[in-house]
Amino acid sequence: MNLLQKPKGFTLIEVLITLIIFSISVLAFAGLASITPRNNSLGGNITEAATFPHDKLEQLRATHWEKIAEGTSTDNVRGTEINYRRTWSVVTTEKMKTVVIYVLWNNKGDHQIRLVSVLAR
Fold it and tell me: Residue 79 maps to which CATH number?
């Protein structure tokens, strides 16, 4: 047997350091896994909320020019998971109506989307 030959395998310190690095990596992925569904839910709410101002704008576009009431109005819209509040205001000038539509909701914080458009005669 040659005493100068280096033994093969890993030392206990090398194995422990590897386990520590692996454990930290697993904990980081576990934290990421808990955040991902929440972000997906928020993204779904934003996508859903973005449809509501467009719906109202299309309703206003389909309405006869003189019947589009000037002022501010509000309604509530039920989404798949939460309720949204939609507020729109119409300001009339000589040849156009400026429409500003807000959609607001609360899901782990207050959120809003704003759509601004102009309707021409």
Answer: 3.30.1300.30
Strands 110-120 and 96-106: what pairing?
antiparallel
Instruction: Write a three-state SS string for 68-85.
Output: CCCEEEEEEEECCCCEEE
Tokens of 118: 């102009």
Tokens of 109: 């914080």
3 lies in some domain: no
In a domain, 60, yes or no: yes
Q: What letter represents residue 57's amino acid?
A: L
pTM of the model: 0.67
Count how many domains the chain has: 1
Q: By residue range, what is the domain housing residue 46? A: 12-120
Give tens-digit pLDDT for 19-41: 999 999 888 888 777 777 666 67
